[in-house]
Amino acid sequence: xxxxxxxxxSQLYNGYRQFRDSTWREKHVQFESVxxxxxxxxxxxxxxxxxxxxxxIFSSGPGELFTLRNxxxxxxxxxxxxxxHGVSAAIEFAVCVLGVRHIxxxxxxxxxxxxxxxxxxxxxxEGEFVPKWVAMAESVRDRVLREHKDAAPEDLxxxxxxxxxxxxxxxxxxxxxxxxxxxxxxxxxxxAWYSVYEGRLRWRDPESGQFENIDNAS
Length: 218
Known about the structure:
Largest sheet: 6 strands, mixed
Order of helices and strands: HHEHEHEHHHHHEEE
CATH topology of the largest domain: Beta-carbonic Anhydrase, Chain A
Strand content: 15-25%
CATH class of the largest domain: Alpha Beta
Number of helices: 9
Number of strands: 6
Strand order of the largest sheet: 2-1-3-4-5-6
């Protein structure tokens, strides 16, 4: 009979054993304190990219971040009816049930979803679900290609990554429960962009709309 340990991918099994032997032992009191309930102050809406882990970037422990990840960190606008609304449900739970005070839309460099959006301007994308998903950023794609038509590919990508973050922030405001809380000061929306290559974070200035390096990064 095959052992259960033999069917688990070795990377996951070894990682779990390391977690139990080190992280759990070091932080078991913290894990136990959040076992009955979670009270995160921050929601991160990030990309599903395997290179961009919010808990790693922000050195966060259990119960500190409520994290939602999808392709290109896109937030669909509010709508009634239609298909399944996993993103909207997660946002509603974070804001209305958990009462988070901050939502951060976290984009990143070399984002495959943003690259797919730009590529869709040259012809239809393959796939059943990804093309429809990144189509939500067509307005960003078209504006970037129009305003930066002579830019190098890497610069186009960066502009589109920033623009997609801005689009998600705008779409968040289409939810009445978010809009009301932002206006009352109970909730603040943020945009951030992470460089995988440099390990640096840029934060969006809400007044200028520019993404600026965090000063104390070494």
